[in-house]
Amino acid sequence: MISFDSSLSDALSIGNTSAFWVLKLYYNNEASFTGVSDQDRIDGSDMYHGIVSAWGNLSHSLDFFNFTTSTGNMSVKLINTDNSISGGRFSDLFSTNNYANRKWELFLNTKNAGTYDTAARMIGTGIISGDIAYDTSFASLKLLDKSSTYHKQLPTNVVDLATYPNAPEKNTDKPIPIAYGDFYEKTDIGTIPTSYFDRYKQFYKGAFPVIITDKWNVGDEAISAKLDSETPHTLDNENVYIYKDGYYPTLTGTISNSGSTIKFSGASAIVYVPYSSSGSSTTNVGSASTTSRDNMVDGSFSSYATLDADGSAVSPSSTQNDMALPQVNKLGEYSSINGTIKLGTVNGSYSATNRLQIGTSVNISSDLSTNNEFQAPLAGNYSGKTDSWDFEGTVQHTLYSQANNNDLQIYESGVEIGFTIENIESHSVSELYEETVRTAVYSEFDWEIEYVDETIIRTRTKTTNYPAEIDYIYCSGKGRKYPAFIDADSRNQGYNETDLIENPVFMIEDALRTELSVTSSNIDYASFDTSGNTTNGYLGDIFNDAVGDVKFAFSQYKFINSKDFISRICKQILSWVFVGGDGKFKIRTLRRAGDYAGADKTINFNDINLKSISRTSLGAVRNDITINYNKDYGQDQFVSNVNTTDATSQGTTVNGVSQSLKLELDADILDSTTATQLADAYKTIFKDRKVILDFECLRPYYNDLEIGDIILFSNWDSNIKIYGAAMGTDYYLITSISKKPSGCSVKAIKVS
Fold first, then answer.
1. E strand or H helix at 565, and its extent?
2. How do residues 548-597 score in pLDDT, each as one tens digit?
3. In principle, which of 233, 362, 496, 506 could form an S-S bond with 500, CB 3.0–4.6 Å?
4. How many CA atoms lie within 13 A of 52 on its CB side?
């Protein structure tokens, strides 16, 4: 809602108050304007020429079910007769001065309310269209809202050759991604061991795409890639990957990062392949129950399997704790294969006789200690098969012991395969190095020899290998952090500068500020805080969850129009973003029916002309909701989904539509809980048809209303039922408003 000053609000509250508009049309460098109104009006030194023949309606609307907004616009009809303004016609003035694509501002006033053009009286602003239609009597001018001056292609930063002359050809002029949210360690799998397992993508929430910007940076002797144009919250040099054949092998050369840039050298990598449990399970030596055996390979360090030896002498065939290794396509030139194991509690003593055997030839005893994490070379199990990567098959894990008290816990067990990436390029680099040279010095006596050591600098050439034909690498980390705006202007919504941005409401605000250069003067940041604050933000209402638990994570690594970018997020948080009449970006977030407890304004039924009561169309009903989430950027597809349905809406009762109506939505979400809550929100809102009121406000007192505002009614005619029910404390959301000086036309949907 627009906040009028008290003088104007008080004047408009009087029933018989008449109001008028004044319009500023700026031209050239916008240091000057031409003022127009319905009659000549003087406001201090400002002159408003009375050449307005007719005001068009100032209109704005939102799409309730698609969470988009229309462009706010209006037209004005001006008198264009000879000598009507500045000694000529307005069309002549329009030709003399350049009004096209310049600012316009519209103000609501009354005769008794002082200065006309204060910011608290502005009800519309935008840019002047360059088109004017006129004859010798009238000129018609179209006024557009301001949104088009802000929106542009995202991401705004690209891999340009001037900055990155060594970029791969396929990456030239491609976008440098925008990274939001947490792709770092999974928090529901216990503590990830730090010797080996923390290098593998399987134990992380996801992997951001990182675009190669320098395929060979001579100065750094490395390949450079950028995660974002902004410095991210967290980058870990151990978690940088390539993508191939469904796997994310970890790069193991020299990795470094500075800001949002990752540099790596070398062409070595490792891929972690978890076992899957298979075969039978017995109670013999080395056995484990089927359930606990699965815990060895479930990707969690909070569950384990126990191998317990009973003291019998057995052969490998007598007990089976079979782990199966899947077929792995050859990812490069083989270099090593190791079994990787995280132990829990280990009891007993171990030796060549008392040991853990993996497969047929790998025996482990010295590494069997409580909480140890270790690797064991497995190449002996695959003699003659390593070059072809023929690793598929069963790998028994057998605990041998001649004592009754030997047992151990295995939290996780898998295989690490090392290789050199194929399609590599060789680069020769000259470097300086120090060398010590010893020189013999002979004295005048032949039997006396002394030596002098000298340090000299020499030049040599070394050759290094690097992966070629890679457009992107990937990393697990955390994306953008809050800039200073989150604490500025005395804001307090529960977040602080440098915190990780996970709240989607503030991802939108960050994009407005960082990518589109919108400042606080053009952002209604209070509305963003109302939607997204951690204490009672409306985002928590629609998700039926704590705001702090509604976390988005994604990379915008493809070009998109900024309006479409914002609309995509809005669809996922059931919100609308628009430029209001005061020229500021605002957000309105839908709430669930029981969450409304107050209105932005109460409308007196005696002040309106009710035109119709209706319902939204049957085609807008959706009672079978699927949310796709957890995007794999290597595959470029979503790999998880949740579904929810509403039986009543699908049924044949008075509250049903006798049909299953599906909606499918892709979401920038990684966790199943948030995806499930989003699906439930859509089901709750979309499963029923909504009541629509269409009415006219007969007084300008309501011209401070905007789309997304919540209204309530007083003095409703008791004879007018809302589909058989009396109008109670029912809240409606304004979906369309069309203003004129004397009042406005409104459409509103019931939300309570």
1. helix 562-573
2. 999 999 999 999 999 999 999 999 999 999 999 999 999 999 999 999 99
3. 233
4. 23
Range of the domain at 347: 273-415
Task: Report the length, in residues, of the chain.
Answer: 752
3-class secondary structure per residue, 337-376: EEEEEEEEEEECCCCCCCEEEECCCEEECCCCCCCCEEEE
Of 145, 180, 198, at which residue does a domain stop? 145
**237 Rama class: left (phi>0) / alpha (psi -120 to 50) / beta:** alpha
Q: What is the pLDDT of residues 430-484, one digit of tens each?
A: 555 566 666 665 555 555 555 566 666 666 666 666 676 789 999 999 999 999 9
356 bridge partner residues: 364, 399
Q: What percent of the chain has pLDDT over 70?
A: 90
Q: Is 680 exposed, middle or buried (0-12, 13-18, 19+ CB in 10 A)?
A: buried
Cβ-Cβ contacts under 8 Å for 439 (sequence gap 6 or more): 451, 452, 453, 454
| Contact in structure between 22 and 107 (CB atoms under 8 Å) | yes
- Note the pTM of the prediction, 2 decimals: 0.91
- Number of compact structural domains in the chain: 6
Spatial distance between the Cα atoms of 34 and 10, rounded to a whole number of angstroms: 29
Q: Which residue in 78, 74, 76, 112 sits closest to 92, CA to CA?
A: 78
Is residue 293 located within the same domain as residue 345? Answer: yes
Does some domain include residue 191?
no
Secondary structure of residue 392 in the 3-state scheme = coil
